[in-house]
């Protein structure tokens, strides 16, 4: 039972994650196997989660909700809860989890840090809140999910299996007519009653994607007409909204950055948006040039130079590239 | 009861100490062997070479000023050369010398004793009280320190625990402990402030409590502001008055100084209840040129005391204002204000606090016991599963590194919840710079040298390049045990260097070892060799008695809950006692006598109980 730690030195943390998890799984420590798995899973996901997800909260949760969640999570993961237990490699893991929880709490409850975070991740603060994912209730809280299913199955419209079939039919119809909002509403109700139906989930995801694409396209249209009318502030806002709705839309991001740049406003934000555009389409010379110009404008000349050089590799003859390179060279 | 379940909390105070535990889900103070809740933090070597701790030591202080050590908490973990120590030495009645590495030693019984050793004697006394209470050995404890203690002072306190044979589970901040005791077992949600003015230090902390989670929001204070300073003001007033009248400086006479100190404290305490106190010190000195002895006789009013100490009171409030501002807390946001420490009994202090917070301070806690109780709550929380309380503590000082131009760059700011970590990228400041020196600093100043240097290390073999081109990533980490580690990495090559900060409490590792191996040497050194023989015969007598009873008790024990565990312990005690018979040191012999006497008592009571059961 005791003394059998396979490895505990900090130097060993650099080995591959898979090997790490396997080894940790068989490590003898004073923790339930369930708790061990929970810790391993959580630790692995830490890097991918945003501050709200870390605390198990929906995007945009209020500082008071954040604080409560943080306290609840602390009761589970504060190292003092495992004091004097033989933890082996789990000691540092628990510490990392708690530090991450603290970081999320600090950022989301400190007004200054929260608004900074909101500036960088506006999509996490959109009001009204983005629709809660059904998955959020699913595996995370089986008791509540079961209870909800039971309640829904008693619902008069859903009491029979046929009820769900009808809902799905209606949703398909709405969808074909382009009314994605209505379609989504129906599908969500159906999927909560039938959480294990894969086809239903697929349909839901597709519809949701269509809805965002549609909304994003609408925003782009509004932005374009605003730009034509010379309302650049409005145009920038709409392009940005489009880019945030559909995070894969490189052109919306680039356009938002371009308009912001011409306005000379929110340059760091513009830079981020153009960075996103470049990340989505690394071979687009225009996007690279835009990013380079924005970097130069915000005083990051070295990075600007790198962007123009990249752009030159793709198309050395482009006048904008040449001009940009000249500019940064001249500065040095 | 297995030993691992028994844990105690100790409030090691400047003037008084308290030991407490949690029993039946309730924190309670363990009375000392003289039946009192408070044990004076006083250690003395009497004229006949006996070591005294607590009440016995305090009682003989006036007649033995040079052999009585008190208020060492104000000196512990400090440098001998520091300003505060120089100031404190002016009014100490016991001799203090400088140790080998600028640490402070007390000259007592012909030896120079380190301060952790002195504190260890107080802790040891409290440990014995607890053992008496539980009837078996106690080793695990949480010990409190002022929130504003630095790493060195904390380490020195930890060392003291170690010397006293205690496994110090955690060093806990006093105001935090007070909050734990206040909120334990109650369903309290909201923010509270703890105003802690004790014998030597002042602390103010703000905590948020929610469903058993105690989060420290902000903490601050002054480790050199407390009841001793108030006493000192009264003492000065007495001394100057006397000098004016008789032209004699009483501070030059250690005995007079001790009497004055005592009288000043008594008058101050009295004035919390009355409007005026009279101070009578007959025969305070005899003039050097001959003539009749002089007497000191004065009366001190509450107003005069308040006038003498007005600036001290003001200082507590200005620190409080600052801490609340840092925490972005308004007095109206607070649910409760809790007064801790004997000094808060002074009506002026309580009144000012009430005015500042615009509310009546909480009266439900005992200002002098609450810290000890809180320490017991935390000790209990750390060692039991699913404890009802969790403390989210913070680092009381900022941490950073020295940067070009002699400035300090803060990486972890004070009041950050621990454990925590932080990284920041620095660049070289000179062309062709191949080495960076990382100096780890603790403190709030923007100027590097005004902070405390915790440690330093270098990262070498950097790529020679223009300044600003080589990037070095510096990472700070404070783990859950409060241990700070710092590393620096060349971002390009991945080359790394790091340091784990080991704070020094004034004693080196070797010195600690020596002390641990020759504990209680104090008495042996004072030459009681003729006494040793008498003690040894007492011990051999005891060994005989225990050995006689042992076989009979063994049978009873085997049936009882203690089981073989207790039997083993008795065997061990007997073994040590037999060895002690051959030892030269009185301390060893005395220790065994004490242990055996306790064993014998246990045997007798067991026998009695067994006897009754048989009948």
What does this protein look like?
- The complex is a heterodimer of chains A (332) and B (615).
- Chain A is 70% helix and 0% strand.
- Chain A is an all-alpha fold and 332 residues long.
- Chain A has 3 domains: 10-124, Helix Hairpins (Orthogonal Bundle), CATH 1.10.287; 134-196; 246-331, Tetratricopeptide repeat domain (Serine Threonine Protein Phosphatase 5, Tetratricopeptide repeat, Alpha Horseshoe).
- In chain A, helix 11 (198-228) packs antiparallel against helix 12 and helix 12 (232-245) packs antiparallel against helix 13 (250-263).
- The longest helix of chain A has 31 residues, at 198-228.
- The model of chain A is unreliable at 1-16, 132-139 and 156-160 (pLDDT under 50).
- Chain B is built from 16 helices and 29 strands.
- Chain B is globular.
- By secondary structure, chain B is an alpha+beta fold.
- Chain B has 4 domains: 3-226 and 314-392, ATPase, nucleotide binding domain (Nucleotidyltransferase, domain 5), CATH 3.30.420.40; 227-310, Actin, Chain A, domain 4, CATH 3.90.640; 397-500, Substrate Binding Domain Of DNAk, Chain A, domain 1 (Sandwich), CATH 2.60.34.10; 528-614, Substrate Binding Domain Of Dnak, Chain:A, Domain 2.
- Helices cover 38% and strands 27% of the residues of chain B.
- In chain B, the strands form 8 sheets. In chain B, strands 1, 2, 3, 4, 11 and 12 form a 6-stranded mixed beta sheet that branches. A 5-stranded mixed beta sheet of chain B has the order 18-13-14-15-19, sandwiched between helices. A 4-stranded antiparallel beta sheet of chain B has the order 22-21-25-26, with no helix packed on it.
- The A-B interface holds A 67-68, 71, 74-75, 78-81, 83-84, 95, 98-99, 102, 106 and B 169, 208, 210-213, 215, 381-383, 387, 390-392, 417, 419-421, 479-480.
């Amino acid at each position: 039972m005791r003394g059998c730690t396979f490895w505990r030195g900090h130097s060993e943390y650099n080995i591959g994650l898979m090997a790490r998890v396997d080894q940790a799984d068989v490590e003898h420590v004073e923790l339930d196997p369930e708790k061990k798995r929970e810790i391993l899973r959580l630790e692995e996901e830490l890097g991918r989660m945003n501050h709200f997800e870390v605390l198990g909260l929906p995007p945009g949760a209020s500082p008071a909700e954040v604080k409560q969640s943080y306290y609840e999570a602390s009761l589970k993961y504060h190292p003092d809860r495992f004091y004097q237990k033989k933890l082996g490699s789990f000691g540092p893991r628990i510490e990392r989890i708690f530090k991450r929880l603290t970081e999320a709490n600090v950022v989301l409850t400190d007004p200054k840090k929260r608004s900074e975070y909101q500036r960088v991740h506006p999509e996490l603060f959109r009001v009204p809140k983005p629709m809660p994912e059904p998955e959020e209730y699913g595996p995370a809280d089986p008791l509540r999910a079961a209870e909800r299913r039971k309640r829904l199955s008693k619902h008069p419209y859903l009491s029979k299996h046929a009820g769900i079939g009808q809902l799905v039919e209606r949703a398909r119809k709405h969808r074909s007519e382009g009314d994605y909002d209505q379609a989504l509403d129906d599908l969500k109700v159906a999927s909560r009653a039938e959480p294990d139906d894969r086809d239903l989930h697929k349909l839901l995801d597709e519809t949701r994607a269509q809805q965002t694409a549609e909304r994003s396209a609408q925003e782009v249209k509004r932005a374009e007409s605003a730009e034509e009318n010379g309302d650049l502030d409005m145009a920038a806002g709409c392009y940005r909204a489009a880019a945030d709705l559909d995070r894969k839309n490189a052109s919306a991001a680039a356009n938002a950055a371009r308009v912001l740049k011409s306005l000379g406003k929110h340059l760091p934000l513009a830079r981020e948006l153009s960075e996103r555009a470049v990340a989505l389409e690394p071979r687009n010379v225009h996007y690279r040039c835009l990013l380079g110009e924005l970097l130069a404008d915000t005083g990051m000349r070295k990075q600007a130079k790198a962007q123009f050089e990249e752009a030159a590799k793709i198309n050395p003859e482009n006048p904008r590239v040449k001009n940009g390179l000249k500019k940064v060279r001249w500065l040095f | 009861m297995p030993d691992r379940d028994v844990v105690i909390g100790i409030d090691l105070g400047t003037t008084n100490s308290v030991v407490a535990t949690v029993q039946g889900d309730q924190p309670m103070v363990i009375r000392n062997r003289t039946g009192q809740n408070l044990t004076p933090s006083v250690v003395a070597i009497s004229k006949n070479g006996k070591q005294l701790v607590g009440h016995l030591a305090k009682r003989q202080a006036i007649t033995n000023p040079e052999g009585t050590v008190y208020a060492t908490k104000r000196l512990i973990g400090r440098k001998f050369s520091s300003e505060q120590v120089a100031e404190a030495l002016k009014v100490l009645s016991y001799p203090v010398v400088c140790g080998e590495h600028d640490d402070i030693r007390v000259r007592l019984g012909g030896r120079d004793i380190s301060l952790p050793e002195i504190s260890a004697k107080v802790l040891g006394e409290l440990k014995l009280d607890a053992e008496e209470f539980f009837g078996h050995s106690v080793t695990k404890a949480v010990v409190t320190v002022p929130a504003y203690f630095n790493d060195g002072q904390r380490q020195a306190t930890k060392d003291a625990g170690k010397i006293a044979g205690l496994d110090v589970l955690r060093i806990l901040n006093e105001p935090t402990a007070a909050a734990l005791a206040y909120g334990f077992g109650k369903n309290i949600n909201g923010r509270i402030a703890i105003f802690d003015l004790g014998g030597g230090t002042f602390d103010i902390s703000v905590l948020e409590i929610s469903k058993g989670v105690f989060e420290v929001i902000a903490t601050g204070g002054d480790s050199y502001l407390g009841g001793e300073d108030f006493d000192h003001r009264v003492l000065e007033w007495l001394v100057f008055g006397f000098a004016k009248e008789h032209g004699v400086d009483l501070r030059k006479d250690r005995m007079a100084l001790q009497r004055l100190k005592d009288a000043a404290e008594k008058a101050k305490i009295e004035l919390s209840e009355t409007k005026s106190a009279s101070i009578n010190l007959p025969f305070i000195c005899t003039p050097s040129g001959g003539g009749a002895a002089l007497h000191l006789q004065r009366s001190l009013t509450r107003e005069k005391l308040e006038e003498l100490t007005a600036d001290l009171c003001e200082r507590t409030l200005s620190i409080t204002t600052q801490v609340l501002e840092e925490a972005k807390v308004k007095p109206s946001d607070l649910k409760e204000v809790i007064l801790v420490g004997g000094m808060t009994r002074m009506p002026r202090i309580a009144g000012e606090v009430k005015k500042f917070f615009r509310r009546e301070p909480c009266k439900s806690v005992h200002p002098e016991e609450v810290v000890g109780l809180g320490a017991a709550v935390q000790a209990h929380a750390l060692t039991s599963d699913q404890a009802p309380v969790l403390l989210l503590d913070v680092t009381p000082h900022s941490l950073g590194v020295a940067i070009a131009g002699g400035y300090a760059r803060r990486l972890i700011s004070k009041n950050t919840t621990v454990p925590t970590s932080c990284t920041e990228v620095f660049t070289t400041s000179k062309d062709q710079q191949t080495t960076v020196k990382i100096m780890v600093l603790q403190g709030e100043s923007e100027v590097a040298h005004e902070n405390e240097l915790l440690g330093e290390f270098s990262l070498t073999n950097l790529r020679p390049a223009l300044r600003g081109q080589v990037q070095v990533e510096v990472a700070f980490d404070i783990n859950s045990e409060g241990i700070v580690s710092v590393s620096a990495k060349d971002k390009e090559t991945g080359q790394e260097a790091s340091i784990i900060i080991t704070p020094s409490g004034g004693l080196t590792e070797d010195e600690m070892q020596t002390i641990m191996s020759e504990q209680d040497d104090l008495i042996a050194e004072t030459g009681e060799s003729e006494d040793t023989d008498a003690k040894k015969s007492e011990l051999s007598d005891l060994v005989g008695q225990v050995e006689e009873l042992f076989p009979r008790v063994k049978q009873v024990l085997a049936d009882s809950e203690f089981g073989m565990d207790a039997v083993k312990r008795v065997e061990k005690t007997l073994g040590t006692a037999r060895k002690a018979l051959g030892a030269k040191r009185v301390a060893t012999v005395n220790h065994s006598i004490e242990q055996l006497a306790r064993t014998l008592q246990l045997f007798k009571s067991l026998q009695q109980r067994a006897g009754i059961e048989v009948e």
